[in-house]
Structure formats: structure tokens, C-alpha cells
Amino acid sequence: MTASAEVLAPSRLRRGASRTGFKIFVDAAFAALLFMGTIVGVIALATLIWTIFDQGWERLVADPAGFLSNYVSRLPARAGIRAALVGSAYLMVLTALFTFPVGVGAAIYLEEFAPRNRVTNFVEANIANLAGVPSVVYGLLGLGIFARFLRMGPSLLAGALTLTVMSLPVVIVAAREAIRAVPEGIRLGAYALGATKWQTVSRQVLPAAMPGTLTGTILALSRAIGETAPLLVIGLPIVIFSLPNDLRDPVSALPLLIFDWTSRPQPAFAAAAAAASIILLALLLAMNAVAIFLRNRYTIRW
Amino acid sequence: MSSRPPRSSSPAGDRPPAGGDSPSIARQGKRTGERVIITALFTCAVLSVAVTVGIVAVLLVDTVSFFSQSGLVEFLTGTVWAPGAGAGEGGQYGMLPLLSGTLMIGVGSIVVGLPLGLLTAIYLSEYANPRVRGVLKPTLEILAGIPTVIVGFFALQFITPDLLRRIFGDDRVFIFNAAAGSIAVGLMILPIIASISEDAMRAVPSSLREAAFGLGASKRQVSLRVVVPAALSGISASVILAFSRAVGETMAVTIAAGNTPTMTWNYFESIQTLTASIAQTVRGEVAAGTVRYDALFALGMTLFLLTLVMNLVSARIVRRYRQVYS
Questions:
Q1: What is the pTM of this model?
Q2: Which of A26, A37, A52 sits opposite B123 (nearest CB)?
Q3: The complex's ipTM?
Q4: Pairwise CA distance, residues B143 & A87, whole Å
């Protein structure tokens, strides 16, 4: 409050008022500057998408079936994304299976059951901090614990677990917000009908919080599926000519392949990287569309 | 579930004998079941603590092993990062070139992202009508959601050749350069700065704005002299958080900013960040137990501590400014 009083010192305003024309000009210039600054981000996004399509579209439409169904190759024209695409899909499904129950369970505990004490505060502060840990550090965690200590090696399971620990804080935060948005009256109503705490939570609160929780989970997954660094660090392979049959089999992933092709000198591989980026972007866009659809279609407004 | 404990008969003596019997069994069973469920939920919540413990333990074990083979003083003050190529033999492990590379990207990306993010935040919070906001906010979310490897590709294939080299000349701008990495990371942190700063600005009570308007201030004066100062703590929190993200960013800087650990302040030269050094090391198979492998974790520890401190400071600032207005 005091800050604003100082800032609006009367002398300044009087000076401004005496030069009205100039002030109007400066105000208009400022508004224009704000708009231009805002538009830069939009232009950057448009340029990025244009660059990807400009470099990759031809490669993609030249042989779309081959691009999707071929394994990698030394020859850029024959190289395809089969192993990476399937690997990313497996990683996504497994990560979802691991993240969702644990994330929702933690959120339910923290919102509905946790006593207000030091342990709870510590757990909450801890989750907030985990959300800020760089993804490459999660990769080191995966390398040290899953790949080496638990002897999973660079496998599907190690990759999915690494992405799981990375996504968990995000899912917990989203689920907590969704649970918190369920009005207290719903819980009290259930109690009044004789429901126990768990009956109330499992049959009233959770279903009501599900759209928000699912939306948050899908968004967290779409971030996980675009991640390269953790998978690179745990050592998932890029050159691979088989699909996984088992949790312990090695898998590749789309972002890893894009990274590999990007860092090759031949321009034809850059085109392939751009084409694979189009597929990845399409995948993420589809996931975001599902999330937005869930949010708009099923969210209950209290 | 199966049998009713004998003790329940004594306190429940006033219950109706016939009808109240079976639900009481059911409820008794559910309570033990419920205790199991609550324990399971508690385990889920505590699992996150285990993740932290895991991170710290993993980093610590190999960091300690690293410092037993390579000196802590050399790591912190050495100006040459040249990991031994052989089986952990030789090599120089001075972290300063990587730290300076990381700082260059951090500072450079803030130079790009802060003005743009702040202009965007002021525009969205004070100027934009709801329909424009409804278009711009999701657009920024899309920008924030672009995988970093694709942003890196964009930096390498567009920012360097079509932007930097066209303006500054091919002979001055390296193919891999810190400027392209900074611009790429700057674009990634722009949405973070914009959205957190906008939240802080929208949290400024409208009575402050109305008072200023009542004194004859224009929209620009209200924005710059009332809203921005009042939201300053939130804005600084967003900047610290964005800096922390920039420091932890891996793929865009690995692809666009190069892999040359040098101490330079020339943004057109190739550099290497802490994260890029980790990425480069893991791309060539490193055997566990070698100094080079352990060095990964020492770098990871440095990164973890750097970002942790910044995130804590940022969270503290956010908590403080929340107390002011609500």
C-alpha cells in the first residue's frame, strides 16, 4: 500500500497532466510495445512450427508408410521411426499405469487424510521441490538406481520408472487441485447418509475430481513423452531393430531418435528429424486435445 | 471381515439387538479395511520422499567416490574440463568452464525471456480483452509444451543460420553458439515468466488501480507505477524459477550451444553447459566405476544443488507476496 502511494507522487501526475498530448502518445506507444512483445512469442512459435514442416513435410509425405514402419538405417532415405514410435507408446502406457495410481493416492492422502503436522508439511515441501528438479537429474537417478543398482539395464521398465518419478510431482499437484475443488457439502452430505470416510472419498470425491485429475495426468504424460534427457542418461538405445516383448527389453523413444538425427551432419537426416518431429508434435497435440476435451466435457461446475 | 471381535458387544449394549447386528459387523470390517487403505495412500505420499532420498543417495555415493579420486579443489576451481578417455585414467576435471557456460545460457536466456515475458504479462493482465487473452494464453502453453529436443532442432536449423548468421555474418557466428542456445532457452522460459508474473499482477487488488486512475493516472502509469511494483516479488520469483529452469535445460543447449567446455564470454562461440556435459558423457558408453562415470554424478549434484537453492528462494518469495494481499 505504501509503495503505491510513493509511486503516485502528486508532482508526477501534475507534470503528466500538463503535457496531455505527449502523454497520450507515450501511452499509445507503450500499448503498442506491449502488444509487439507479446506477439514475439507467438511469432517464434509459428516460425518453429513452420521450420519443422518446411524441412520435414516432404520427407514425411514422400513415403509415410515406410517412414512409420521402417527401422533406423544408415541411409537417411530408408530410415524410419518404427522402434522409436512403438517404444514411446509403450513408455507412455507404462508411465501412465505407474504414475496415475500412486499420484492420485498421494493426492488423496494429502488432501483428505493427512493430519496437519510436520510430517505432512515435509512431504508437501518435498513434492514442491521435486517438481523443480531438472529432468537430467532424474535421468541420473534412473541410471544409478533402476538401470545399475536394480540391474534393469537400459530397458523399457527402467525408462518408464524414470519417467514416472519425474511426472509424479506434477500429477500429485494436479490431482490435489482437482480434489480441493470438490465442495465440502458433497463430503458432508455423504457423511450424513452414514458413509465412512473412505466411502465418501472413493464414491463421491474421487469421481467428482476425476476430470481434473485425468487432464493433469495427460498433460504430465505429454511432457514426459517429449522428454529426451532422462532417457538419454539411462542409456536407452537409438539404433535398435526389434520391438519390446518384455519389460526388460531395450526400447527407443521418438525424442531420442530426433536428437540423434539432429546431431548428424547430413541434411537428409535433418529432414528425417523434422519429419519425426511432426509425428511427435501431432502425438502431443492429440494428447492435449483429449485433455482439453475431458476438461470441457466432464468438469463439473459447482 | 469374517468374524466379529468379542469386545464390540460390551460398548454396543444399547444398540437394537436384531437389526443393528449385521451392519455393525460390516462397519467393523470396513474400519480395518479403511486403515489398510489409508496406510496404502500414506505410502504413496511418502514415496515422493523416497524419490528425493534416492536422488540424494545416488548423487552422493558417486560424488564421494569422484572426490576420492579427483580433488574437490580442482573440481571447484579448475579451469580445464577434459575428462580422461581411457579407463578412468588421467583427465582434468575443473568445473568452471561448464559453470561459465551454464551461466552464459542462464543470463542470455533471461535477457531474451525476461523483457518478452514481462511485456506479455503486463499485456495479458492489464490490456488484453478476454477474447485476445483466450487465444494468447493457450498459445503460450503450446510454446511451453514443445519438446526441448525440437526447440534445439529449431535453434540449430533456424536461429543460427537464418537469424544470427544472417545478421552478424558467417565468419563471426559458430555453427554451435551460446547465443542460439540462449534464444532457444529464452523462448522456453518466456511462458514461465509470463504466466507467473501475470498471476502476480492479477493478484494486485483492483482498488489500487482504481485509486491511481482516480488520481488521473493513465493505463500505462497504472501498469508501470502501481501494478508492476506491487507484483514485484511475484515477478522476481518467476525470474528466479525461470533461471533455474534455464540452468537445468539439457537438450536445446546440447544441440545448439555446442560441446566445447571453454571459458569465454563471446556468445557467438561454442560452449558447454553442465547439463550438456552430462548428455555428452552418457552418449559415449561410460563404464561404471570410472572417474568419468563418477564425474557425471558430481555434475548432477552441482546441478541439483544450484536449482534447489533457486527453487527454494523462489518459493519463499512467492509465499511472502501471497501473505500481503490475501
A1: 0.88
A2: A37
A3: 0.89
A4: 25
